[in-house]
Amino acid sequence: MYDPDTLPTEDEINKADKPLNKPFRLPKGSSKKFGVYVKDGDKTKKVTFGDPNMEIRRDDPKARANFRSRHSCDTATDKTSARYWSCRMWSKGTSVSEVTKDFNVLSPILKADSESKVIWGWAYVSMDKGERSMDHSGEWVAPETLVKATTNFMLKSRTAKVNHDGPKEGDIVGSLPVTKDLAEALGIQSDREGWIVGVVASDETLKKVQSGELTSFSIGGRALKRSL
User: Fold this and answer.
1) What is the DSSP letter of 199?
2) What is the DSSP string of 108-170?
3) Cβ density class 206-226: b for 16+ within 10 Å, e for less
4) Which tens digit of pLDDT belongs to each residue from 40-75?
5) What residues form DSSP beta bridges with 199?
6) CA gyration radius, the chain
7) Chain Cα centroid distance, residue 25
């Protein structure tokens, strides 16, 4: 769990820049499919919307027309409502992937070595080219906070699982938290700040990585956080 002293105050959160009006996908298991930050008066509000079990068939003219008629999309103008954003997803034009691309997780697996069975890649990206990299939940961990969390994790756990579930599938044997200051001190040039890991995985997991079934890392855990 993160040290409460490292967390931002409520005043700092309200003053911080948020990526407004940019929908993002919520993680599997969420009650809704998407989320988006919007301005509601002087405050920033997180709106969640969309049935996670429903396919968006916006390229099907009949399905699109039926959805927009049922939800009276022609009169949906309130950006603080779930209806407005659901209608946006069901409008003709830009694809859902393009609408949510600013929140794609930048944690790709970069190398999987058959001999050592070590899988390398970014476990989490906090900053990309000077911009915050939001995760699937629309949340963000600052580089300095990530360093403390990952150090604690390496000291006490180092366990790797597939999709955060089931039995242990491997051990994290390589850990490099990357901040701007650390990269400069080590003479490393990187457009990103975050956490690079090396995971010794089972034969089955390694095959899934090499076949392209598993393509990225993800981190999970408990944290103290403040509502936006």
Assistant:
1) E
2) BEEEE-TTT-EEEEEEEEEEETTEE---TTS----HHHHHHHHHHHHHHT-EEEETTEEEEEE
3) bebbeeeebeebebeeeeeee
4) 888 888 899 999 888 888 888 899 899 999 999 999
5) 119, 172
6) 20
7) 8
